[in-house]
Amino acid sequence: MDGKLGSGLAFAGCAVAAFIVGVKLAPQVRKWKNKDKYQIDEAGDHVAVRFDVLSISDLVTLVSDPGTGAISTFSGTTRDNFEGKEVVRLEYECYESMALKELKNLCSSIRAKWDVKKIAIEHRLGLCPVEESSVIIAVSAVHRGESLEAVKYAINTLKATVPIWKKEVYNNNESVKAVW
Fold first, then answer.
1. What's the distance, Cα to Cα, between the start and end of the chain in Å?
2. In angstroms, rounded to a whole number, what is the distance separating the alpha carbons of residues 22 and 4?
3. Tell me, what DSSP letter sits at residue 107?
4. DSSP 8-state assignment for residue 157
C-alpha cells in the first residue's frame, strides 16, 4: 500500500463499520416503497394510526436530516406471552380523530422540552401478529441525548394519554380487553 489507502474494521457493540481512507464513498440511497402514505407537517412532525404493517426504516428516512447527528427509534412489538399465557396476536382500536390530536399534542410537548428536528410516530390498528410492530417512534436531533430522551418520553406519554385500546388474544381464544 502507498500510505494513502487503507482499510479496517471498527467494532462498537454489535455494529461494524468499514472505512477506507482517502476514498470518497457514494451517498446513501434511500428507497421509498409507499412515499404517498407519509406526510410531514410544517413543524417537522408525522403522526398516523394505520391498519398497514409499520416500517421503522420508512420513519427513519422520514426524520433524516443533514443537520442532525442522531436518530433515535423505538419499536414496540407483539410478544408471544403475557403472565404465563400464550399470546396469538393483539388487536388495536382507537377513536381516530382524538388519537391523532393527542399524538400531535405529544409532538408539541416533545418540542417544548427538547431541541429536536423531526418527529414521526405511528401506531398500528386492527390485528397485530406476534413479532410485528404495534408502535414506532423516530426522532432526529443534533445530539443523541435529546433524541433518546424524547423517544423515551414519547412512548411513556403515548401509553398514558392517547386513546388507543389493546385486546390480547390467547391461544385458547380467551381474550382480555385492556386500555392503553
1. 60
2. 6
3. H
4. H
- Tell me how far apart the alpha carbons of residues 31 and 168 are, in angstroms, rounded to a whole number: 34
Q: Which amino acid is at 32?
A: W
Provide the residue type at 52 as one letter: D
Percent of the chain whose pLDDT exceeds 90: 67
pLDDT in tens, 40-83: 778 889 999 999 999 999 999 999 999 999 999 999 999 999 98
Please name which of 5, 2, 178 lies closest in space to residue 92, comparing C-alpha atoms.
178
Q: Where are the beta strands (DSSP E) in 59-132?
A: 70-77, 81-82, 85-94, 116-124, 126-129
Alpha-carbon gap, residue 23 to 1, rounded angstroms: 14
Distance CA 10, CA 96 (A): 46
